[in-house]
Amino acid sequence: MQLAQAKHALIDAGRWLSAQGWVPATGGNFSIKTELGFVVTASGHDKGALQPEHFLEFDVQGTHIAGTGKPSAETDLHLALYALSARTHCILHTHSVAATVLSRLTEQPQLEITGYEMQKALYGFTSHLETLAIPVFDNDQDIPALARRVADYHAHTPLQNGVLIRGHGLYAMGADISETRRHIEALEFLFNCELTRRQLEKNG
C-alpha cells in the first residue's frame, strides 16, 4: 500500500475505533505494511483525531526512516507479528473493556469461544461449531521478551486473527485494513457475548 493511502486508512480506522470506545486515553496503536516497510502511529496521540504527521515510517527491518514523534514501545511487537505471518498486512491494537477483562479472567494460555454464528466473520472459520482459540499472553514491559513468547506460540499454533495481552487489550490482524476492521468488530462482539454469558451464569 502507498504511504498516503495507508495513513488515510488508519486515520479513518482510528475515528471509527474511538467512536466505539475501544481506544481510550490515547491508548492503542495501528500499523499497515507499505511499499517500503510499514507505517505505525506515534505514541501519545488521540486515535480518534489522528493526522498524517502522527505516523512513523519503518523499513522491513524495523529501522525508523521517517516521521517525528516517539515510537510506541509496542512497535517491536507489530514488527514481530508481521514477521510471523506473511498474510498479515495490517494490525490494529485496541483497549476495549470486554477484551481487557476477559483476558484477565482467562487463566489458560488461550481464550476458547464456540457456538456463535459471528465466528464465521473471522478468517478461516466456516461454522459456529468450530472452536475459536485466541492466545492470551501475560503483559510485559519487555516487548522483545513478549515478542519471543508470541513467536514460540506461533511455532506450534499459527496465529490467525489476533492475540490478547492480559490486562492490556487486543491485537487484531488481517490481510488488509478492511479484514482487520472486520476481525476487530467480530471479536469484540464475541468478547461481549462471552463476558455476558459468564456473568449470567455466575449470577444465575
If you compute it from the alpha carbons, what radius of gyration comes out, rounded to the nearest whole angstrom?
Answer: 16 Å
Determine the strand fraction and express it as a percent band.
Answer: 15-25%
- Work out the count of structural domains: 1
What is the name of the CATH superfamily? Class II aldolase/adducin N-terminal domain
| pLDDT < 50 runs, ≥5 residues | none
Strand order of the largest sheet: 4-3-2-1-5-9-8-7-6
Could you characterize the architecture of this molecule?
A hairpin with a 4-residue loop joins β3 and β4. This protein has one domain (3-203): L-fuculose-1-phosphate Aldolase, CATH 3.40.225.10. It has 204 residues and is of the alpha+beta class. It is globular, with a radius of gyration of 16 Å. The protein is built from five helices and nine strands. α2 packs parallel to α4 and α3 (97-105) crosses α5. The mean pLDDT is 93. It has a nine-stranded mixed sheet, sandwiched between helices.
Q: How would you summarize the topology of this molecule?
A:
Blueprint lengths: L2 H18 L8 E5 L3 E5 L13 E5 L4 E3 L8 H10 L5 E5 L2 H9 L4 E5 L16 E7 L5 H14 L5 E4 L3 E6 L2 H27 L1
Helix pairs in contact: 2-4, 3-5
